[in-house]
UniProtKB/TrEMBL annotation:
GO terms for cellular component: T cell receptor complex. It comes from Oncorhynchus tshawytscha (Chinook salmon). It holds the Pfam family V-set. This is Ig-like domain-containing protein. Residues 1-17 form the signal peptide.
Length: 128
């Protein structure tokens, strides 16, 4: 008998009031080494939406990837190997698929119709 570590994955939602993003499955229990897909459904008046996926680490969102109708999108280097999402404008969904789950993948993941992370500049501040 084999016992596999289970990963706990949770989901949050991010969008503006006139738009709607839903992640119907809040908590997912999955087996390490297997793939899983997290669902993200959206409503927007935009004919060409941009969808973003984030991972929360230490209560801070980490940008993972962006999908839109104009380009192949963008994926942060650390997530390119095992994380992917495909924007389905007709079905109004952008599911996130994680391949070969690792214990370090246990986190809260959320999708958004707007960027929720801005650049953070670190370094000395100078008075003018």
């Amino acid at each position: 008998m084999f016992l596999y570590p289970l990963l706990f994955i949770s989901a949050l939602v991010g969008c503006r009031a006139e738009e709607n993003v839903r992640q119907p499955t809040e908590d997912v229990m999955v087996v390490e080494g297997h793939p899983t897909t997290l669902t993200c459904l959206f409503d927007t008046t935009s004919p060409s939406p941009y969808l973003f996926w984030y991972k929360l680490a230490n209560d801070k969102p980490i940008f993972m990837l962006r999908r839109d109708t104009f380009s192949p999108g963008e994926t942060t280097t650390e997530f390119k190997d095992r994380f992917d999402a495909h924007l389905n404008v007709t079905g109004k969904s952008v599911p996130l698929t994680i391949q070969r789950l690792q214990l370090s993948d246990s986190a809260v993941y959320y999708c958004a119709l707007r960027p929720t992370v801005t650049k953070v500049y670190s370094g000395p501040l100078q008075k003018l």
